[in-house]
Amino acid sequence: MLGFLGSRLLQSVLVLIVASVITFTLAFLLPADPARMVAGPSASVATVNSIRHELGLDRPFLSQYTSYLNRLVHLDLGRSYKQSSEVSALMASRIWPTVQLMLGAIALELLIGLPLGIWAALNRGRWPDTLVMGLAFLGAAAPQFWLALSLVYLLAYRFALFPLGGYGGLNHLFLPALTLGIGGAGWYARMMRSQLLEVLGQDYIRTARAKGQTPALVLLKHALRNATLPIVTMIGLDIGTFMGGVVVVESVFGWPGLGRLVWDAIRVVDIPIIVGVVIFSAFAITLANLLADFVQPFVDPRVRYR
Amino acid sequence: MTTVVLAPVARKRRNRSLTRFLRNPAAILGLVVCVLIVLTALLAPWVAPHDPDFQFPEGLTMEGAPLPPGGAYLLGTDLLGRDLFSRIVWGARASLTVGFVANGVAVLLGVLIGALGALTRGWVGTLIMRFTDVMLAFPVLLLAIALTAILKPSLWIVALVIALINWVPIARVVYSEVAALREREFVEAANAVGASGGRILRRHILPHLVPTALVWGSLGVSTTVLLEATLSFLGVGVQPPTPSWGGIINESQSYLTTAPWLVLAPGTAILLTSLGFNLLGEGLRDALDPRGGL
Amino acid sequence: MKTRLMLAASLALLSFSASQAAPTRGGSMVVSYKDDVTTLDPAIGYDLQNWPIEKMLFDGLLDYEVGSTKLAPRLATAMPKVSADGRTYTFILRPGVKFQNGRELVASDVVYTLARVLDPKTKSPGQSFYTGIAGAQAFIDGKAKTVSGLKAAGKYGVAITLDAPNAAFLNIMAMNFAYVVPKEEVAKAGADFGHKPVGTGPFKLTSWPSGQQLVFERNPNYFFQNLPYLDKVTVKVGLDPSVAFLSLTRGEVDLLGDGIPPAQFLQVVHDSKYKANVLQRTNVNTSYISLNTGVGPLKDVRVRQAINMAINKTKVLRIINGRGVLAKTYLPPLMPGYDVAEMGYKYDPAAAKALLKTAGFPNGFDTVLYTTSTDPNPRIAQSLQQDLAAVGIRASIKSQAQSTVVEAASTPKTAAMVWSGGMAWTQDFPDPSDFYWPILSCKSAVQGGWNWPFFCDKALDARADKADQMVAPGQSAARLKEYAGIFSALNKQALWVPIYHEVRYMMKSDRLIGGLPELEDPIHNIVYERLSVTK
């Protein structure tokens, strides 16, 4: 097991490096001028060139990349082009809200999706199954922005059950998490349903039932445990995705997460922020996937570590 | 002698699949919906009552507000005074290319690569899975903008980008499933008997992946169509005025309270396509292999 | 009869004096913005959002009277003395003005501030506005340690010498870039000064959790003792405009910093209960299509004129719900030097087609129209596309991120037509030279410049140069006339298709007290120090 962890950790570091190289290269190749974005429209060409020189953007690519790598090794993510603040400081203040949103969203996805999926599987072909399927598709087809605005309008404006956006405690977190939760719950419901159906049809399940074990016991002991394997992986993926921030939900609710930070940075080609967030995101994803792979043998004892 | 006996059995099996399919009302519904939508896309010039790109001077009120459904325009007009119904009909072309083709390719790629990653021993499999980690970490938006510089933006570019993004999570999920399946008794048994890797893949592993592929294939139709809109926003993909369902939603989302039909109409189209594809897919799966799906 | 008259008169007098009473002191307000504030360093922060906020924290030697374009002294005791040759300006500072850290402001602070703007290390967008100061270029190039044209004369005197007279210099001194910053605080905060600003202004920044909000509180030691009226201003950031609008109707937000969201616009202007809270003013900016004189058929002035005649500007105004005024020329109507007699090109597709035929394009031609991808610009671009198609010009649209559009537009021979939506040319200060040098002069017709038509007429440059040197008080009318002539010549060249000047609508809550001068100030938009709330 230790060997597994050790080699995976090493691989994760490699992933981080590769992701940062690709991002840095792409940002460099963008057909846009960060110096002009910093300078604004009224600055003369001379000023723009001066700013470009100060930011080190007129140096050859390799030189820029090695400086960046050098700073990275000292855990210095550099300074934002547009804001001059340290990238690490900017990100640090946004990480906790991002984590909160991620936890809230995943919790709601599971709370809504899993029971619905189980209900649908147990009632295959009957109306609960159709209802759940319809809801799942509705959730996936609803555009996030529209869903967010609708929820705000209904639950925060019409019926003032929740605050109109902003950052705060659980009641501020609920609507943004719900927006993400509704969108994602359908996937968990469908996966749970199809996995459960497949497991319920297995011979050993039929044997257990034939032996007279009560359905509830059968369900809990065998079926759920086997069915949740890919779902654990999906949770890992979700953790990774949400840790990179969700710009649409953050924008509607004014949630100070990483999504908005990196989106704004991409708009003005603020390379240090972009690469900084990607590195963090890569870290979160590799960690989440590592955890998901780590947990698998506990969920299904037949799976062994590679 | 064996061949003579097998042939009629094979034919009978095919006939039985067809009958099973035709007896399933949900499957028929799915087929009908899908065929209708595809036909609408193909026959758009004849189905659409107006030119989808023409901005009618009388399509907006004097102050520039769009017209609600009813009257001269079946589903009302959009924010430029264009006939919404015609735009949705023509928009099916872009959205189906993305929803069916791009998503389909993504699912195929994801299933194959994920399965391969789990079955290949040694560093090749590891490499594949770490590669997916890199792809997941990567801000796709950046890739999209960078691509606009190199390539001429078009529908096929956006379909390609979407396929390249979406196969990754599928591969991860499939990987974990296959990793579990790999250790199961029947696989070990087949191995012991000396069955080849390809045979194991085909007969024992892939059938178990069909439900997953179906889930991602069907729900993915919606998400990919909406993703196409985001990418167009960045300059990748269909350029205005070419209509797409996601694009129509994107440009009218804020008008949720004042012009809700602008989101509801294309949204319903996306929903129907996604559902139809799912019903069809499940119907096919049930018809071909009733055992697996119960 | 007399008693009733007297009663009426005294009542009238009472109500008159009541409305003229000083605004109530105290209270707080909330303003919301969609975008995060990038920086509050006055040398760096230069957009519609952080300009009014910087004015809360800092002061300059000069300022404008509230709601007008008339210059007035602020940190200076009076307007500066100008030398006979028009090149040296001497300012006397008010004594006793304190920075928020307690130290008194002196002349060396002003010298430090301006040198800092010029210093390449600061990366100030405003650097080029001050390169006219004597010795500035040598300082920038590292050949000199100080700027020879910036001198402190005693504790409160500042003398600034220019290389050549510049009629717009006082306007340049009133810009945010010249707002005075304390050297020791800049040294202490380093590059983080933009997030830890310290100035002399009426408010100080007390908290700024990143991405959420900024909280400003009254500066009790402000040198204008009656300002500010409010105790506290909270700037909420990152909120979607539609949600901010809902917050305003519920009274949780007092002012929509970005204006009325387009999606709710018609609903608001038709609702009588909002009428008193909606203010509007025509911005001093122009939204236009730039026509690249270096690309294909656009090299021919007749083609450019035909394009001007092909565009239906009223249709575009309808798309933006009438939130604009039709533009006839480069300058906005509120810009000094605007020629009322200038008619521009009339919408006449038939004449456009005929002119194209004369120019050798009877069947039109293919071209590309760039636009930013933020709503409503792709829609406007499509309206323009349809107009062009009607005269045979087949324009395909490239809808991209703003940074990409800017890059393409400022590269020679690349972008044929660019719709400036989202990047309207807005005045930096109320002077016509600001609409010439950065966007239509030879100096800016280079790679990376903002002269997207890439037009260069050295004779016009010389005329503008001469006009800028007409600094004597009696010459201002003649100078504006000269600029009117320059723009008239440019009109004949049809380098742009000017479409509209934005009309900015602001919406406030019932409790916020502020009128056009405070909420639609032509330079700073929102003058927070003069806003107040009902008790």
Notes on the protein architecture:
The complex is a heterotrimer of chains A (306), B (294) and C (535). Chain A is mainly α. Chain A has 14 helices and no strands. In chain A, α5 runs parallel beside α14 (271-299), α7 packs parallel to α12 (247-253) and α8 (170-200) packs across α10 (215-227). Chain B has 294 residues and is mainly alpha-helical. The two termini of chain B are 34 Å apart. Mean pLDDT of chain B is 83; it is low at 1-6. By secondary structure, chain C is of the alpha+beta class. Chain C has helices at 2-19, 50-57, 107-118, 136-140, 169-173, 183-189, 241-249, 262-269, 301-310, 313-319, 349-358, 377-390, 402-409, 437-440, 458-468, 476-493, 516-519; strands at 28-32, 62-64, 71-73, 81-82, 88-92, 150-152, 157-161, 203-207, 213-218, 232-236, 255-256, 278-282, 285-291, 324-326, 365-372, 393-400, 417-419, 425-426, 496-507, 512-513, 532-533. In chain C, the strands form 5 sheets. In chain C, strands 12, 13, 14, 15, 16, 17, 18 and 19 form an 8-stranded mixed β-sheet that branches. In chain C, strands 8-9-10-1-11 form a 5-stranded mixed β-sheet, with helices on one face. Chain C starts with a helix and ends with a strand. Mean pLDDT of chain C is 93; it is low at 11-20. Chain B binds chain C through residues 53-55, 57, 60, 62-65, 79-80, 145, 148-149, 153, 232-235, 239-241, 251, 254-258, and chain C through 241-242, 261-264, 266-267, 315, 317-322, 373, 375-376, 378-379, 381-383, 385-386, 396-401, 404.
Largest interface, counted by CB within 8 Å of the partner chain's CB: A-B, 70 and 55 residues
**Low-confidence spans of chain C: pLDDT under 50, at least 5 residues?**
11-20
Helix content of chain A: over 70%
In terms of structural class, how would the helical and strand content of chain A be classed? mainly alpha
Largest sheet of chain A: none
- The number of helical runs of chain A is 14
Alpha carbon gap, first and last residue of chain C: 38 Å
Q: Beta-sheet strand percentage of chain A?
A: under 5%
Please report the total strand number of chain C as a whole number.
21
Shape of chain C: globular
Q: Report the structural category of chain C.
A: alpha+beta
Q: How many strands appear in the DSSP assignment of chain A? A: 0
Tally of alpha and pi helices of chain C: 17
Summarize the structure.
Chain A has 306 residues and is an all-alpha fold. Chain A has 14 helices and no strands. Chain A is 77% helix and 0% strand.
